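Task card 7
Instruction: Convert sequence to structure tokens.
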Amino acid sequence: MKKKIFYTFGNHMHWIDMEWMWGTGTLENSTKDMLKLVQKGLKGAINFDAIGYEYLAFKHPETFERLKEAVRQGKIEIAAGTYTQPYPQLIDEESNVQQIIFGVRACERLFKVRPKLFWEEEFYFFPQLPQLLLQAGYEVYCFFFQETWHTPSVPKFEEPTLFWEGADGSKISALSFTDLCVHQWPEDLERTISKHAGKNEDLFLVQWLELMDSPKWMCRSELIEKELERLRQIFEFQPIRPSEIVDVRKPERIVRFKSTDLYHGLSLGKNGDTLRIERRKVENTINDAQILATIAYVNGLSPQWSAYPDWEIEEARRLLMISQAHDIDECEGFCGDIGKVYLQTAKSLATPIVERYMNLFSKNIYGTSQLCVFNPLAWKRKGYVRVEGTDQIVAVEDVPALGVFAVDEQNGSRRIEAWETEEGIKVLWHGAEWTVQANGIVRTESNGKVYELNGLICKGYEVVPLSKPTLKRILSDLIDVRTSVKVGPYECRQSFRFGELNDHLEIEAEIEVIEKPKPGYAGALMVGMDLKEELKELVYDYPFGVERGIPNLKHYRYYPKGDWMTSEKFFEDVVNHFASLRFVELVGENTSMLFLHTGNQGFIRDDSKLLAVLYLYDPWDGENFAKRVRTKYGIALNAKRDPLMMAQEFNRPMIARKIQGSEARSKSFQPFEIVGEIQLSGLYVEGNSLIVRIWNPNDVEISVRMKPKFDFVKIERINLLGEVMEEESTQITLKPLEIKTLRFHLPTHVEKGLDEYRYVWSEYQKRE
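Output:
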């Protein structure tokens, strides 16, 4: 008696980039080729980005209707359906949420069904993902990722299904990565059949396909079908949809993963992470625009006839998500700089919103102060801020949480002393002496040890100073020291800012690539931090979470020797590599070091040292590698504050404008006061409701009090798709690492009619 083999597939294609090489009919071609397999009795899943479904429905409606019918009949199910298929661990919290929301809503609108299987081609993983997926209606996740531009590494299991328990305890059924997970090439399928033909057990074979009926492509239904015929001869062949596997083989094992237990396989640091840095800036601008517009909305203010700039914000968000697409992120040699074009367009939509609302608040705020300051974070802050429309930098303190306030400029009475020596520029900062040397190293002493911070590293090269350090005083309590050095193929100009209101040293770097570096990490420019004692743990963040551990894994990257499609590949070992979203802290027995960044997300642990990757050349980019990049990072020794809060502040500067006061109404504008330690992910208006997304960064349950500054009818806790889960109060409990979305129903807004102003329009042409 033949043993049964359950066979399923996922067919992947996406709108972003593919049409440029294979033509505008790529999605239709892939769909038609997949439907050929369906006509022969196979079942599987389709994995397009949701923007691709929108494109297919618009451009090729007849083919889309055939696909829609296959979904309706249960022969094909939708896999994932994120809006543009990003790498989620590299984008911020609200982008992760909106990628899911935009995607699910597009699938519901087009297919009239909600996807329940989450399976993406690229490495789509971070420890809080189960919580988000369950809140969006997903029921099954898949751990089988492809090796494409990247080389991910995932633990392999014997059993085909398991439960994945997220960091907060949420559990989702999952398809595991097994020996029977097969890549798209027919040769992979043939090897797997040969290996398992003699097995005396039922098997579950999961294959990833990227179908296209074209001689320009190597994965076609005609080739796959030949190997499937062999399967039918050996086994009792049973087609099945991926999500049905968890019904046939119910999960038993529960697994938990830290973010460092799996390897993303990306060249983090390539091109100076310019795209990732700029994406974060644009996302923060969009978030600022939403918060400012929301505060104005609940206070009855508007800079224009529209009460809330819905379409501008939504379009900016959509364009930002396009720039996050995985191929745009990963291969600028293939996709070019199109991601930067989308980013620039998103920025051009969001920036004027921020400017309009800051101008509005500056006219409506009053007091003896001269500054109108916006703090987008949920706690009180201090620091340095640039005044909009000027080159002026001012110091501000005690800026309340989340809102727009009249604030006094500080007089800078706490002067920082600095002077030039033969060793370099010496700075007396926070009670310690710091020396910025010509080679860019910053020396200081703490706990009886001398630390050398900011040592630039490129394997095989020495750091060569190009000039003496120079000193500039910006304010009495803010100074700037500059150096210029050469490290192998890199010239690096750095600015070191010591501010009395800052608890970190802020470093800006302009990196010029004067010759093509060695490929990969072998030729990377990195900055090193040496703890000088045994490393007890690393603390680092990912979307919606912070974890502790010591990465101790060895992986590999592969790169093309020439043309990305046709050349052979070569390999590079990557040891103890990991990613962080905003910060990494090294913790020893007596010392800690904190590295804050704006998007340089790649790190390597080398014993007790930390290496942060600032730039590398990735052969996948060919000759389209960046020749000049800018980045910013911060270093703190024995920081006394929460590193996540410091990292958020480092990435979310306050915004200031001179008070105009012509229509003064209040000294401050806040949506609500917050009592308790939370992180804010999103704050925006939807319909006539205010949506607030908050999350608990702690490993213990917390209680938070929200004191709205506006009238509301009721509060509901909703899932990501706006469905009511339960009623809430202003006293909110959050479990460890819990993410909650709240909806404040606002009173019915009575529109003021224009009938009394009809004469303005009906009579204006009656010129005598």
